[in-house]
Amino acid sequence: MSRVAIFIGSDSDSDVIQEACRILEDFGVPFSLDVTSAHRSPDRTLRLVRRAEKEGAAVFIAAAGKAAHLAGVVAAHTLKPVIGVPVESAGLGGLDALLSTVQMPKGVPVSTMALGKTGAANAAYLAVQILGLSDPALRDKLSRHREDMAAAVEDSSRALREKRRRA
Amino acid sequence: MSRVAIFIGSDSDSDVIQEACRILEDFGVPFSLDVTSAHRSPDRTLRLVRRAEKEGAAVFIAAAGKAAHLAGVVAAHTLKPVIGVPVESAGLGGLDALLSTVQMPKGVPVSTMALGKTGAANAAYLAVQILGLSDPALRDKLSRHREDMAAAVEDSSRALREKRRRA
Amino acid sequence: MSRVAIFIGSDSDSDVIQEACRILEDFGVPFSLDVTSAHRSPDRTLRLVRRAEKEGAAVFIAAAGKAAHLAGVVAAHTLKPVIGVPVESAGLGGLDALLSTVQMPKGVPVSTMALGKTGAANAAYLAVQILGLSDPALRDKLSRHREDMAAAVEDSSRALREKRRRA
Amino acid sequence: MSRVAIFIGSDSDSDVIQEACRILEDFGVPFSLDVTSAHRSPDRTLRLVRRAEKEGAAVFIAAAGKAAHLAGVVAAHTLKPVIGVPVESAGLGGLDALLSTVQMPKGVPVSTMALGKTGAANAAYLAVQILGLSDPALRDKLSRHREDMAAAVEDSSRALREKRRRA
Amino acid sequence: MSRVAIFIGSDSDSDVIQEACRILEDFGVPFSLDVTSAHRSPDRTLRLVRRAEKEGAAVFIAAAGKAAHLAGVVAAHTLKPVIGVPVESAGLGGLDALLSTVQMPKGVPVSTMALGKTGAANAAYLAVQILGLSDPALRDKLSRHREDMAAAVEDSSRALREKRRRA
Amino acid sequence: MSRVAIFIGSDSDSDVIQEACRILEDFGVPFSLDVTSAHRSPDRTLRLVRRAEKEGAAVFIAAAGKAAHLAGVVAAHTLKPVIGVPVESAGLGGLDALLSTVQMPKGVPVSTMALGKTGAANAAYLAVQILGLSDPALRDKLSRHREDMAAAVEDSSRALREKRRRA
Amino acid sequence: MSRVAIFIGSDSDSDVIQEACRILEDFGVPFSLDVTSAHRSPDRTLRLVRRAEKEGAAVFIAAAGKAAHLAGVVAAHTLKPVIGVPVESAGLGGLDALLSTVQMPKGVPVSTMALGKTGAANAAYLAVQILGLSDPALRDKLSRHREDMAAAVEDSSRALREKRRRA
Amino acid sequence: MSRVAIFIGSDSDSDVIQEACRILEDFGVPFSLDVTSAHRSPDRTLRLVRRAEKEGAAVFIAAAGKAAHLAGVVAAHTLKPVIGVPVESAGLGGLDALLSTVQMPKGVPVSTMALGKTGAANAAYLAVQILGLSDPALRDKLSRHREDMAAAVEDSSRALREKRRRA
Fold first, then answer.
1. Do E34 and C93 touch (CB under 8 A)?
2. Do chain B and C touch: 3 or more Cβ pairs under 8 angstroms?
3. What is the DSSP letter of F57?
4. pLDDT by residue (tens digit) across E104-162?
5. Is E141 exposed, middle or buried (0-12, 13-18, 19+ CB in 10 A)?
6. pLDDT tens digits, residue range C77-107?
7. C42-54 and B136-166 helices, crossing angle to 10°
8. 3-state class (DSSP) for residue G65
9. Neighbouring chains of B at 3+ CB pairs within 8 Å?
10. Is the pTM of this model over 0.90?
11. For residue A147, what are the CA distances in angstroms to B76, G40, G44?
């Protein structure tokens, strides 16, 4: 059973989504990962959405670049929350993917994250937040993780000061 | 008890958020609505986040324009999903609000919607989708609503053809 | 039998597509016009693509705004040329629709036109150019139309000079 | 006899257009390739358009960067479909070439593709789609190619899963 | 004899170019004004460039919107300085016209002005500056005009202070 | 004696700067207001900078649109803090003024505010903050003003809730 | 005692802020440097603002990338001048950080500098200008530094001419 | 005696301006080259403008990046044509320099070229075109150069075809 179904539009996006997988693993959230394209394999995309729903997916994550329609196509075929990760590309720097993901019409929201790896990581965190609404153990892990993050900021501050002192 | 806590950065955003309120009412989802500013009333914003959590809010919606930090500030103080609605303004047309809302750092996601009224409506729909994960009745209403939407598209197509025939 | 199948993403786009219809009528090219949404009525969109192909459509035109996926979805389900017309909207001025339409991935082209009414008119002209490749009569009409266009430019120049002289 | 006439604005664009040539060769579509500039060799551009038409070209492809006028100039001198490929450059990332190519005035459409190599490949696919309208054998090849594309997506998905399993 | 040849891409640009005409008249510089389109009347555009050169034009001004190729086409057919005025339009606000005008390839410069009416006025001033290089009387008029401009700034400052005092 | 010297690039910017004047008056900070252009009255601009310094100006505010050089020119001729207010204009919506104001080279900072009226108001607040560093009474007024702002947010929230209850 | 409190949103910004530290050291202005995040360590950020104020900070500098809220959060909790340095990142090239920093709402200004290292250096210069208002020695150093800068420009001009002569 | 006075805002722009120098040398046009900054050495900039005018400069060229005010400052102090070359920089890719250069106010035009090296080369060509208006020998050289350019395009086309044949 997978609680989160992740789709990427092309295997060139696998680098970007890596961090999302690692975070879900850290939180112990089962997930599936598939390459599928809104345009090159539209039927497969639909089949994967239906299969994921049957296998218990509560949240979808879709990462794609350029005219990034993948998240939108998934959102058109499910009533579960769909998280979109726009992927940067050369030229327009990801503005194309960002606008294609976020500017969805009324009635079919895509929960859009930041561009690239940061957005992929945050897609995982948001999925955990959503699943945590009905899972106290997950919520506790999230809470500890937030504290660790704040502590890490403090550590890096100390390290920087240390480094400057020695320089 | 409010399941969704809505914040707007200024009362000039109340027009934009209207539709979100109407949709939540239609779905029978209890919500609260407050004006609070990330910058002009930062302490109040924190107090409202804590109060909303105590009163049972599972999802936050924050709408703001320009350097739209409201959703980000809320997200920094809760582990619940936070939905951001960037509001258009003259000049940069909302690109400022969109980027300020969506480009959140790793660890603190804001689920970003489309600009303006469309985004406000979709924030409500996404909140319903999230709450629907553990509420079968809400899920059923969503499902019927999707069918109505598709039917409405068909109706408007028929109406358009009719209008052209007469013209 | 319709040689061109036109889809618009919402009846609010009917104003934009008007000129395309008028031009196809002027050239005597039979066409169909339907409202259908990539996101709100995805199944209907597929059905319409299949029906149009059966009824002899050689070219598709799809006009949509914001995260304009309609042309892309059509292109994913047909091997016929698909012409996309990005529609302006408030805020980002149509840059979202333009990038969502044009930045298609390898293998699934969308022939993208200018924004708005100009693009809608040109979608019709391009459809006529494509159909004209195997229709000498249509080609002749196009040729005459080009000459008329050039003559109209000359007329407007004369009118302007006349107006300035009198002023 | 060449069915497709390809023009590039400068030999620095030859890398970008490569893929278009390869695809046309794969589909067995005869084409010509010439360097010509809308601005530095305007007369030559006109001569090449006329020659290409005489030699049977049904479709034009023009790739250029910056103030990319090449496709527009070709479109002003032919009634055949003209496909424009905007080429990225440093600085503005190709937004200049994209807007210069796509924002054509009413009456003279340029069928605009995505930026760079993706757009060049898609220019070839669109040319094949247009030629396929009156060439059943070409249509069959296109149809098989689409299936291969979908299969390739599935393969890359399997490969990714395999790779993750081993890691 | 016209020293400056002005072309506008469409009669809808006549409003924008008005101010350029008025300024040239004020400076006593003879000019011609024609509507001609790079795309809809390419042959006419060439004819007009040649005729203008024969009639003594030393400077060209071309105003156009969207994929504004008019100045570039003129520059490709003359060795005289060509001044381009990008015209705003709805949607992209003139960024398309600006980039299409300014990003010319090496060897064929277009002297680009600000967007719209300001740019049209400045095109006239620049033409006067260029003609003034070999016309001392014109140079004197320019010099006086600059002083008047500075005086006008001072006047408006006084008027503003006066207005505030009374308020 | 004026503690703040305000310059606007044209009397069409007087509307924008209004609010800055009102705020400085409310805080009892003496200021001067002059129209002067970096380009049309460069000598006057220099004279005004020198005069303002002599008359005790500690902070400069400069508001201008388009290629907004006014603040930069002032900053090049003083060592006092210079606050720049970019003014929106049609077309590019003020992005031109914003970038021209903020992207100053190393060594000559311009303290850039938000676009338009909001930025003008904030220029006044920042001037008060800077002057307040050595003026405890001003600091107290600022402090009370901040509290009033927070209270105003709370009032508008109450008013909105009231309005919704009645609706 | 620190007169300037510098915050960076992540230790990856320490490279950017380096130059600001060096300049403050050159001018003999005591400062503190801490890593703290508006979103990952919001409580720490508040504590640091309060501590800095107690320890005598007169000016704050905050550097951050993407949805750069750090300067805004600091500005919401102090009445001292806050200088924001937007940091570039891949993809949108810093436009996100620039708009998130500069487009602050009325009442809570952030004095925004240029992107990246240039902006960091200028944040230090602006801090020195502000502190110099009540510190004649600092003002003198600034004045000499400006002269050195002008002399350095002249030197580089000579060096360039020299280099060209030899080439 | 220098007919063209070239200014660059910093020695880091010397690479960009190189090509302009080479072209002016090829055409035998005497020019001067100086580094001077609108902001860091404003007095020097004025002195250089006056000196250049005395020494016979008929055209100014100014290249600068970011908030590129150099050309504008020069234009404010001369009645000769001023050509601006916006220089790309990291982050915003030169859009800042382009808008700062081109969006000049009414009355003070800057003749703006393309970004970077292409624009620098074209600044030289435009200077030659302007000087050529009263110098038939220069005009002849320009005319031959245009023919060479067209021939070079043809050569590169032949070379490309040759290369493809061999591959």
1. no
2. yes
3. -
4. 999 999 999 999 999 999 999 999 999 999 999 999 999 999 999 999 999 999 999 99
5. middle
6. 999 999 999 999 988 999 999 999 999 999 9
7. 40
8. strand
9. A, C, F, G
10. yes
11. 11, 9, 11
